[in-house]
Amino acid sequence: MGSRAKKKATTFPQQHLGDEDRLSRLPDELIHKILSFVDAKQAVETSILSRRWQLIWTTLPFLSFGPYQSYDPYNNFEAKNVGKLIRHVLSKRNHESHVSDLKFCVYNKGCSEKLFQKFVDYAISHGVQSLNLELPHNYKPFKSSTFSSTSLNKLTLMLCLVGVNNPGRNGIKNELFYR
Questions:
Q1: Where would I find the F-box domain in this sequence (predicted)?
Q2: Is 147 exposed, middle or buried (0-12, 13-18, 19+ CB in 10 A)?
């Protein structure tokens, strides 16, 4: 039986998996599209795939944080780590890269209101076009001026309290969803 395994091994040509890195040959736009389907945490984790992917996550035009709960047995990621993750991603991100979509979803107090406000400010200052926010009901109300942006086309708020006076002309251009 040992000779049969030996014969089988010599029948197939030896391929060195490290010789050809097909992932690195993909265009940035395609890699970005692939990573748009995963959470920011998972996108950062892809940096170990190849040298080229080490920094590709820093230029993602789509960032999704969550959903995070107090403890998710399937994800093994506690919401208390959300703050660290957001700080890491936003501080290491290539700030010259365009951001089109940001999603933030936390169902408990895993992220401080101050850090969350920094997240929203980051989104607005980087010209985000679509902002999706899902928060616990006990976050303090937002002022409608928080979302004043000329680039913001779509704002989706779930379980958010918003203090609306008169948003004025600098409000959202197209869509506003409350769920």
A1: 20-65
A2: buried
Q: Please tell me which residue, 31 or 9, carries the higher pLDDT value.
A: 31
Residue 59 CB partners (closer than 8 Å, separation 6+)? 28, 32, 93, 94, 97
Give dist(CA 24, CA 50) in Å, integer: 7
38 alpha-carbon distance from chain centroid: 7
**Domain total of the chain:** 1
| Within-domain flag for 18 | no
Backbone angles phi, psi at 89, to 5 degrees: -65, -45
Residue 91, burial from CB neighbour count under 10 angstroms (0-12, 13-18, 19+): exposed
Which residues are paired to 178 by β-bridges? 157
Provide the domain limits for residue 103.
60-178
More confident residue, 141 or 14: 141
| 19 within a domain of the structure (yes/no) | no
Whole-model pTM over 0.70: no
Task: Kindly state the tokens that stand for 168.
Answer: 């004025």
